[in-house]
Amino acid sequence: MGQGFANLPSVDEVLRGPAGQLCSARFGHAATLSEVRAGLEALRARLRADPAAAPDRSAAAEGLGRQALAALERADASRMVRVFNLTGTVLHTNLGRAIYADSAVEAATRAMRHPLALEYDLESGRRGQRDDAVQQLVSELTGAEDACLVNNNAAAVLLVLAALGQGRETIVSRGELIEIGGSFRMPAIMEAAGTRLREVGTTNRTHPQDYAGAIGPQTALLMKVHTSNYLIQGFTRETTTAELALLAREAGLPLVDDLGSGTLVDLSRWGLARERTVQDALRDGADLVTFSGDKLLGGPQAGFIVGRRDLVRACASHPIKRAVRLDKVRLAALEATLKLYRDPDRLAERLPTLAAFARGVEDLRALAARLAPAVAAATGRAVEIAETRSQIGSGALPLETIPSIALCLPAAGGEADRLAVAFRRLPIPVVGRLEGGAVLLDLRCLDDEDAFVAQLPAFGMEAPC
Ligand SMILES: *Cc1c(COP(=O)(O)O)cnc(C)c1O
Question: Where is the L-seryl-tRNA selenium transferase N-terminal domain (predicted)?
Answer without folding.
Answer: 5-44
